[in-house]
Amino acid sequence: MASIRERTTPAGHRRWEVVYRGTDKRQRSKTFKRKTDARRYAATVEADLLRHDWVDPQRGRQLFSVWAEKWSATTTHLKPKTRESYDSILRNHLVPEFGNRAMASIDHAEVLAYLSGLTNDGKGAGTVRNIRDVMRLVFKLAVRNGVVKTNPVDDIRAPRQAKKEMVFLTEDQVWELAEEIKDPPPLRRGASHRDGGYPDYALLVLFAAYTGLRAGEIGALRVSRINLLRRRVEVAESADEANGQFNVGPTKTYSRRSVGIPAPIAEMLMAHLDGRKQNDFVFEGPDGGPLRHSNWYPRHYKPAVIRAGLPRETRFHDLRHTYAAFLIAEGAHPRAIMERMGHSTINVTLGTYGHLFPAIDAQLDDALARRFDKATPPEPSAVVGLQRAGK
Length: 391
Fold this sequence. Notes:
The protein is mainly α. About 50% of the residues lie in helices and about 10% in strands.
């Protein structure tokens, strides 16, 4: 239990010292000018010790930068791209702002004001949300290690990120995009395109629009994952770029799936893969090697989007949305769409594409009407009999 001792300073001033032992059995003390403050502190310490909620004050003086580094060291299991993003947030935002601050000195109101300030300064909702999440994880580790009692980032809401408008292409628009990426116009300043153009990139566009694979999944796809006899592609890896390195790892949901390949696309792939080794990438960079999306996207895809007359905001990911729209238009069951798209749950599928399903309702109504029209009605007397029987 905590005890209060009165003592006098060399200058003759009265002081009250609270003495207690922490859970580590070490004796600690804190001095106050007023006895009332000493009593209040002693009561708080005793309550914390009884609840096993006591935190060593010395540990709370450790700097945020120290715990940011400790937390970063726990993220080695994450994908390189994710780690790069987290390290960037620490390096460019959190450590400059809080790095030299004691962990226990950072409170809820200050964190709330900091995040609100980022929003007022024009930072995007997604950026503010990511900064909040990283800071919360740093403090979560500190709480578990007895550095601070509570997490000051808990219960702080981040601004909602506006959903990017989806672009759904028609079959003809997909073809137009493929043709434009295949035969681009001459480059300026004496540079030249690859001899014969880029028929492989035209196939890449068609493949994406008719299989729904993500950009990273296409970048990591190797010949061994393509089964042309069964017209299936096994999706088991995904590629990304972090710190200038090309990395291949698990898919977004850490799961595998098998996706069908339409026969015309399979025929094109057969010609494209002729002579390739099993470990080769299906789609490569302009000069061979891995297809780096960060270079390919602005140099090949976006210019082709503009030349094809498509909405300027059309992203590569919209080919995946287009695939989902094709499936829905054909009456595919949401479960089948979920499995082909590689969504973690059917709620993700419905949450993303649910607004497209009402169009199917009208088709179902028409189909039921046609089924009704095919039926042979009973004789008039039989109908009367049914009505009298109350059926």
